[in-house]
Amino acid sequence: MLKSRILDRKDLDYCYAVFKSYIVAHHSDDVVEILLFTDCGRHYCIIINAMALFEDNMQISELLLSNPLQVLPVLDKALASVCSEMHKGNGHQEVMQPKKNIHGRLTGLPVCAELTRTKLPRTRDLGWFLSGIVLKV
């Protein structure tokens, strides 16, 4: 199993920067589409292909897979930041609404023994990705 550790501020800042640049490069259209919705209280998600993200930056794969409970909130923070920046920097602010409830959803996680279970998850699986789901207590 991947070795988990407490990430320091430098690691989290690195994840934030990588996520922001990836979102701008690959999901700008998705962010604009969300900004055009009028319901600001609704929760929105952007589906991110994990393998494409990992191909773009291999270090993020290790940080994300070994520390999902620490790194996934950073992804959401990066999405909210990009959303806010795109809203402010866009000439169509009158038709766009800023959104605070925007979340990243990872799909296409690599198939490996650390992420796959044939039986119900066990206690040791808490806080780890299993088939794209983070188990929380």
Structure in words:
The chain has 137 residues and is an alpha+beta fold. It is 47% helix and 12% strand. It has five helices and four strands. The chain has helices at 9-26, 28-36, 50-56, 58-66, 68-88, and strands at 44-49, 102-107, 129-130, 133-134. A two-stranded parallel ribbon has the order 1-2. A hairpin with a 2-residue loop joins strand 3 and strand 4. Helix 2 (28-36) packs across helix 5 (68-88). The longest helix has 21 residues, at 68-88. The two termini are 20 Å apart.
Q: What is the secondary structure topology, with strand pairs?
A:
Blueprint: H1 9-26, H2 28-36, E1 44-49, H3 50-56, H4 58-66, H5 68-88, E2 102-107, E3 129-130, E4 133-134
Parallel strand pairs: 1-2
Antiparallel strand pairs: 3-4
Helix pairs in contact: 1-5, 2-5, 3-4, 4-5
Quick rundown:
By secondary structure, the protein is α+β, with helices and mostly antiparallel strands. Helix content is 47%, strand content 12%.
Report the oligomer.
single chain
> Which structural category do the helix and sheet elements fall into?
alpha+beta
Q: State the shape.
A: elongated
What integer is the average pLDDT? 83
What is the string of helix and strand elements?
Answer: HHEHHHEEE
Low-confidence spans = none
Distance between the termini: 20 Å
Query: Biggest sheet: strands, sense, closure?
Result: 2 strands, parallel
Roughly what fraction of the amino acids lie in strands? 5-15%
Radius of gyration (Å): 16 Å
